[in-house]
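hey
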């Protein structure tokens, strides 16, 4: 679990932050005692300290609530006692949970913070851990420690809180119909398993128990109102998690909630065992000794006062002599000499700058020009004319060579005549597709090519010229080839 991954120094910082909720005086007292005294139950170096709940118990005791180790006494006094059930609850029977339900129905305040809960009519909790793949929702990079940011903004327990850190949390899947429930803390979207997606981790329920007299005309009176807070991750309130995110502030508000309505005592059951009162007085520093007024020192005699005064005067006179001697220091350093040295320094700096400039202009220190390789005719052609214009010229050249071979004449008028007569040729001598390509090529030779001719259009033109000549002019070939730009 996460407590094993934290360092001793981090635990100590967390302890200081948490005790801010219980008052600065008690904080520094606990801090000083934990360093100087040996208190086994509050030893933060103990590996099991992070998984316990002494800090929550201290908060409740600081609220003025007494510890009631007898569970039966708390169940019998729901109006004045609060009940906390934390940790393992696997051995608690259905009869026990029925008594807890009756306790809340009679006006009690109940906190249930367990990993798993199945045999209770209050709620059903699935055991975790829920995992997240979102790095922003991971606490210290651990996928099973999710930072929950979906908190109820209109409830005193979570109002103004930003986030809550969990450790291998479960989720609540069912709740009793006898309460009016409100979700306080909810899982984010995209967690695994899918069943935990957007499921609540903390819920609070309110139950009203109204007793009416049907045999008399007395009005219906509200005898008691009960409240229950259920957490599917008890580590939120553990010692080792209270310094992460807003867990400490949430624990302080839970303590305030358990102490509401003038309650005077509480029973805290951790791992199915009730807790005794925590000895907070043993942690307080000892009372300082009674201050005693120091005796009045005797007044020195007049001879002593005169000797001290004379010595002070003599030291003052000697200091004046030293100041006069240091007034003309360094000795023999005239104003003219000082000015001359300043101008010499400026001259040396100017001379160094001039020498540097001259050295940079010398051929020896001048950097060699970059090597320039000769360019090919194709590169020169590409630089002299745009690529589209080059493709247009190449297309027209290929079309004119095709027209010369196709018509057997060098005259453009003969090419125009072939262009006009090609549509009258019979289909068996020239297919429709071939007629379209021949007309396009002859039109390019007679009227010129398109202004924007891409590389693909040029390659397509060359292909059809070669194909038409091979199929319809046996032995005919182009006398030259125009390279297609790559």
């Amino acid at each position: 679990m996460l407590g094993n991954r934290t360092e001793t120094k981090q635990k100590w910082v967390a302890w200081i932050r948490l005790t801010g909720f219980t008052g600065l005086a008690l904080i520094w007292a606990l801090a000083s005692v934990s360093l100087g005294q040996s208190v086994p139950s509050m030893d933060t170096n103990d590996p099991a300290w992070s998984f316990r709940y002494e800090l929550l118990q201290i908060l409740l005791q600081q609220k003025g609530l007494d510890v009631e180790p007898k569970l039966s006494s708390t169940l019998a006094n729901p109006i004045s006692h609060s009940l906390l059930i934390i940790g393992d609850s696997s051995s608690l029977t259905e009869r026990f949970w029925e008594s807890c339900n009756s306790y809340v129905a009679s006006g009690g305040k109940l906190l249930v913070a367990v990993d798993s809960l199945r045999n209770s009519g209050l709620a059903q909790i699935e055991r975790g851990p829920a995992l997240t793949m979102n790095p922003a929702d991971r606490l210290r990079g651990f996928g099973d420690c999710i930072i929950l940011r979906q908190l109820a903004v209109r409830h005193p327990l979570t109002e103004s809180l930003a986030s809550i850190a969990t450790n291998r949390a479960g989720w609540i899947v069912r709740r009793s119909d006898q309460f009016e429930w409100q979700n306080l803390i909810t899982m984010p979207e995209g967690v695994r398993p899918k069943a935990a997606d957007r499921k609540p981790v903390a819920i609070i329920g309110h139950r009203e128990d109204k007793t009416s007299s049907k045999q008399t005309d007395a009005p219906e009176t509200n005898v008691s109102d009960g409240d229950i807070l259920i957490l599917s991750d008890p580590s939120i309130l553990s010692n080792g998690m209270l310094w992460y995110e807003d867990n400490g502030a949430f624990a302080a508000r839970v303590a305030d909630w358990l102490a509401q309505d003038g309650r005077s005592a509480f029973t805290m059951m951790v791992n199915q065992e009730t807790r005794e009162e925590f000895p907070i007085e043993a942690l307080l520093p000892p009372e300082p000794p009674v201050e005693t007024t120091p005796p009045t020192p005797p007044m020195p005699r007049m001879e002593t006062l005169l000797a001290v005064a004379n010595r002070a005067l003599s030291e003052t006179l000697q200091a004046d002599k030293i100041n006069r001697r240091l007034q003309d220091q360094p000795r023999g350093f005239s104003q003219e000499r000082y000015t001359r040295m300043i101008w010499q320094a400026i001259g040396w700096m100017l001379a160094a700058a001039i020498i540097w400039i001259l050295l940079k202009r010398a051929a020896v220190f001048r950097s060699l020009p970059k090597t320039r390789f000769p360019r090919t005719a194709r590169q020169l052609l590409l630089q002299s004319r745009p690529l589209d214009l080059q493709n247009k010229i190449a297309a027209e050249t290929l079309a004119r060579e095709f027209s010369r071979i196709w018509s057997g004449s060098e005259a453009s008028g003969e090419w125009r005549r072939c262009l006009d007569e090609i549509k009258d040729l019979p289909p068996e001598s020239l297919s429709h597709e071939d007629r379209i390509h021949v007309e396009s090529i002859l039109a390019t030779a007679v009227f010129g090519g398109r202004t924007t001719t891409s590389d693909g259009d040029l390659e397509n033109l060359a292909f059809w010229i070669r194909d038409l000549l091979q199929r319809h002019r046996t032995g005919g070939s182009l006398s030259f080839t125009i390279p297609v730009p790559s």
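The mean pLDDT is 78. DSSP finds 14 helices and 14 strands in the chain.
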